[in-house]
Amino acid sequence: MTTLTTRALACAATGAVALVLSGCASSPAEQSPPPASTRATAAAAAQELTTRTTVLSRDGSAAPVLCLDVVLESYPPICDGPAVQGWDWSGLEGAETAAGTTWGRYEVTGTWDGTALTVTSPARPWDGVAVDLLTPSSSDTAGTAASPAVTAAVEDYRAAIGTDGTVLGVEELDGRARVHVIVDDGTLQRSADERYGPGVVVIDPALEPAADSAS
């Protein structure tokens, strides 16, 4: 999981790349949209999921939101994201309030219903330091130029951002297309491998199984 600031910069850069490449060679997947759908992550609803991110509540909002995408580092910060049901700011350390907005960085655990996360255990303050587990383990990919399949995948997933609430962002990193999604039960990664070939796309879910996060 990348940090939010890094993701914001990467998404901005990817947007520029996608515009430049839009007139290039045709995509191998242009006959249908990329494999990103909330229907493909239904199995994730049966388990507890967790994420480390900013939780933000605007004045008058029905529920706080998880800042899973870009956070504008104003004061107070601004972000959008899925709702957090069952959230209670009472007694939580690390929360700040300004101009009718309350926010803080937390490790949040709950169940996902496709549109919102329902808290199942008390949130824990998070210091904002994330370990990136998706950096390629092999030095063979470092600095590798994007292949046509990677370029096609970046274009396809870029076009899917905001269309079904699943794809948050995409970037080309070390010769692979890295796709940020809300959640994946493994279906999205398998579909990407079948569509573009193994090792072309890395699906990067913001919500991960709680057991994996604790290990």
Keywords:
215 residues, alpha+beta, 10-stranded mixed beta sheet, 4 helices, disordered N terminus
Kindly describe this structure.
With 215 residues, this protein is α+β, with helices and mostly antiparallel strands. 21% of the residues lie in helices and 28% in strands. Strands 1, 2, 3, 4, 5, 6, 7, 8, 9 and 10 form a ten-stranded mixed β-sheet that branches. Strand 1 (49-58) and strand 2 (65-67) form a beta hairpin.
State the shape.
Answer: elongated
Question: How many angstroms does the end-to-end distance come to?
Answer: 15 Å
State Rg.
18 Å
Classify the helix fraction into a percent range.
Answer: 10-25%
Question: What's the number of helices?
Answer: 4
Class from helix and strand fractions? alpha+beta
DSSP E strands, number? 10
What is this structure, in a nutshell?
By secondary structure, this protein is of the alpha+beta class. The protein has 4 helices and 10 strands, in the order αβββββββαββαβα.
What is this structure's SSE topology?
Elements: H1 4-21, E1 49-58, E2 65-67, E3 83-85, E4 96-98, E5 101-112, E6 116-119, E7 124-125, H2 148-160, E8 167-173, E9 176-183, H3 187-196, E10 201-209, H4 210-214
Parallel strand pairs: 3-6, 9-10
Antiparallel strand pairs: 1-2, 1-5, 1-10, 4-5, 5-6, 5-7, 8-9
Helix pairs in contact: 1-2
